[in-house]
From TrEMBL:
InterPro entries membership: HAD-like_sf, HAD-SF-IIB-MPGP, HAD-SF_hydro_IIB, HAD_sf
Identification of the protein by name: HAD-IIB family hydrolase
GO molecular function, one term: hydrolase activity
Keyword line: Hydrolase, Magnesium, Metal-binding
Database matches in Pfam families: Hydrolase_3 (PF08282)
């Protein structure tokens, strides 16, 4: 029986990228092996399009990518056949999200969003350089924020957002205000395209993440890989769902788990 076609969907911060340094190099052996085998690696992150494009250049990654927790799916020109680059967007616009947040802030909720900060301030908050901070602020359908109120106020804030059709998700570093979508939506769209591209192969979706905003993606994949980290224990999946948990955090754990998966599916 032929090997299945593997498609990997990976979160970035705390997963492929080190939580503190943003370094991906400990994962180089697995990345090189995926490239040699022609196995797609789809970056699926809360990061923006400009941020992910810059990282894709470093990784020499030419595959589709999912931005801002599923706000947009970008398919490179000619990837699934002739045609220009496709950008598929869902959910509320960032402008409408910022309008809602302005209303809620006026009601007394205490938080700081990326839109409230200059590039220099955002760089200090995130540890990025200023150019990278500008890329992080160039968003289409989400707004990250730091919460400065109490836990009880946060729950009321979450309900007020829900009443307005918005969702509050915990990411690796920030809370993210967004529309009614998640990382799994982009994964489902792309898996449909991959399966149509190779109808005679069984396509297997493998998802890697480290925090609750990865949960829907992990649950929707055929195999979930939970990378060790501060928020990894908060991910709740059905007991019957196939799961690998890394012993090490970040790209070290990512590397070891991806190589294990390749061996499991006969790609050793």
């Amino acid at each position: 029986m032929s090997k299945p076609r593997l498609i990997l969907f990976s979160d970035l911060d705390g997963t492929l990228l080190d939580h503190d340094t943003y370094d991906w190099r400990p994962a180089r052996p697995a990345l090189q092996r995926l490239d040699a085998l022609g196995i797609p690696l789809v970056l699926n992150s809360s990061k923006t399009g400009p941020e992910i494009r810059a990282l894709r250049q470093q990784l020499d990654n030419g595959h589709p990518y999912i931005v801002e927790n599923g706000a947009g799916v970008v398919i490179p020109a000619g990837y699934f056949g002739a045609g220009p680059e496709e950008v598929i967007t869902t959910g509320a616009s960032r402008a409408s999200i910022l309008e809602t947040l302005g209303v809620l802030k006026a009601r007394g909720y205490r938080f700081t969003g990326f839109a409230d900060l200059s590039p220099a301030q955002l760089a200090r908050l995130t540890g990025l350089d200023e150019e990278s901070a500008r890329r992080a602020a160039d968003r289409i359908g989400t707004e990250p924020l730091q919460w400065q109120g109490t836990a009880a106020e946060l729950e009321r804030f979450r309900r007020d957002l829900s009443d307005r059709g918005l969702v509050l998700q915990q990411g690796g570093r920030f809370l993210h205000v967004m529309g009614q979508f998640d990382k799994a939506d982009g994964m489902v769209q792309l898996m449909q395209r991959y399966r149509a591209q190779t109808p005679h192969y069984r396509c297997v979706a493998v998802a890697l993440g480290d925090s609750p905003n990865d949960q829907a993606m992990l649950a929707g994949a055929d195999l979930a890989i939970i990378i060790a980290g501060e928020n990894a224990g908060r991910i709740q999946l059905p007991s019957s769902h196939p799961v690998i948990r890394s012993a090490e955090p970040g790209p070290v754990g990512w590397n070891r788990c991806v190589l294990e998966v390749l061996s499991r599916y006969g790609y050793s």
